[in-house]
Structure formats: C-alpha cells, structure tokens
Amino acid sequence: MSRGPVRVLRLGLRPYAEALRAQERCVEAARAARLPVPVPGESVVLSEPAEPVYAWGLRGGPEAEAAARLRRRGAGLAAVRRGGRITFHGPGQLLVFPVLDLRRRRLPLRGYVEALETLVLRFCRRFGLPAARALPPPFTGVWMGDSKLCAIGVHCGNHITSHGLALNCCTDLTWFDHIVPCGLEGKGVTSLSRELGRHITVDHVLEPFLDSFQEVFDCTLVFSEDPGD
User: In this chain's numbering, which residues are marked as the site (Lowers pKa of active site Cys) (predicted)?
Assistant: First the structure.
C-alpha cells in the first residue's frame, strides 16, 4: 500500500540558494503538517544549479586561502546543514532534496541513506548503467568503479529530512579538480554523459528518476508549483 502523496517541486535551472530556500519552506510545511493531527506533508525539491557553487557540510569547509582561490575561479561558496565535506554543485547536475518524515515511515537514518542509494542504483539500471554500485560504510553515494557518480549528504532534524543527493548528468567535471571531493583522496568523479558516451541533460533523467523514487519510497507523486518566498 502506498504511503501517500509526496509533493514534487520542479524548480528547473535556479541558483543553489533558491533551492535551499524552497527546501526550508518544505521542511516547515512538513513540521506543521504534524499539528494538531498528523497528516502527510512530504515533498521532494528538484533543481539544477544555475551557477557553480562549492558547498560543504558540518564537517568543515576550506581554509580562507583555499576559499579565496575558489572564489577567483568564479564559484560561489556555501556552508550548509548536512553531513559530508566539500563538493561541487553546478549546471548539468540534478539536485534532489527529499523532505520526508522518517518517524512516520519508521525508517532509521542509515536506512534512509541506503534507500537513497537504492533509488539511484535503480535509476542507473533503468538508464543503462548496471555496473553502478554502492560501497560499504563509511562511503556513501553511487559509484562507477572508483569514480563517484552521485553524492549523498543529508540532514535530519526532528525526524524530518533535508538535503539529499547530487547526480552528475552533463556536469563540467573540471570543477572538481580544485577540491578533494567529499574529502576522499584518490577517488574520481564521473557523470552520466561520460559513462554513456552521449550528452545527458537533467531533463533527460527526470522521468525515470521519479519513477524510481516512487518505487523505493512507496509513494505517489503530486506535482506542485513552488510555494514562493
């Protein structure tokens, strides 16, 4: 039986900060949906970053000199409330921020991260990449060989999730050359376009990705307009 509707906000090409603001509105809506009577209030925010941004989570960001060097390359910088170290977000990348109630779903945080990996692996099989794999902890994300295809970094407060995953579609991977992505020395980064040998845009992947989302999270998807600032 389906666990009920999950609202989908498809923001398209937007600045990273706008996607974060939309996510926070969804988090507030999910918290409000519990009172006075619990009702479904789950969402998933989809976007493609309009400009290059380096973002890092609770484990710390770059030193001042390194941050200045990244700014000189024309990238924005953002400290966000999620797990994980520094990574890159930019055009050609699908950002997915699920706002789900793990208490209602009876899902532990580690189980949620594994569900996100399962979601991407299922999508990869649909898209012709059966060799995609997840690695055992402490690694997260989805990999092709030793190169990360999809990064995962989440936050959970009061059982409500935020942040999520970044799937490289036709991302300019040279942006990753200026950092140690996710703090993992000796590991590479790849994209759907590189692995499949053809240009894969964010729009190309949305339908099969959302099909996989519905299956893994046992839900129906309801498309909605961005509620605004």
Answer: 148
Q: Is 165 annotated as a binding residue?
A: yes
85 annotated ligand binder: yes
Alpha helices in 33-171 (DSSP H): 64-72, 102-105, 109-126
Sheet arrangement for strand 53-56: 76-79, 53-56, 87-89
Which residues belong to the active site? 182
- 79 marked as binding residue: no
- Asked if the model's pLDDT at residue 34 lies above 70, the reply is no
CATH number assigned to the domain with residue range 5-224, chosen from the 4 options 3.30.930.10, 3.20.20.100, 3.90.70.10, 3.40.50.300: 3.30.930.10
Mean pLDDT for the stretch of residues 8-29 = 96
Contact yes or no for 164/213 (Cβ under 8 A): no
Q: Given the structure tokens 């995953």, which residue do they identify?
A: 165
Is 0.90 surpassed by the pTM of this model?
Answer: yes
pLDDT tens digit string along 70-107? 999 999 999 998 877 889 999 999 999 999 999 999 99
Tell me: is residue 197 an annotated ligand-binding position.
Answer: no
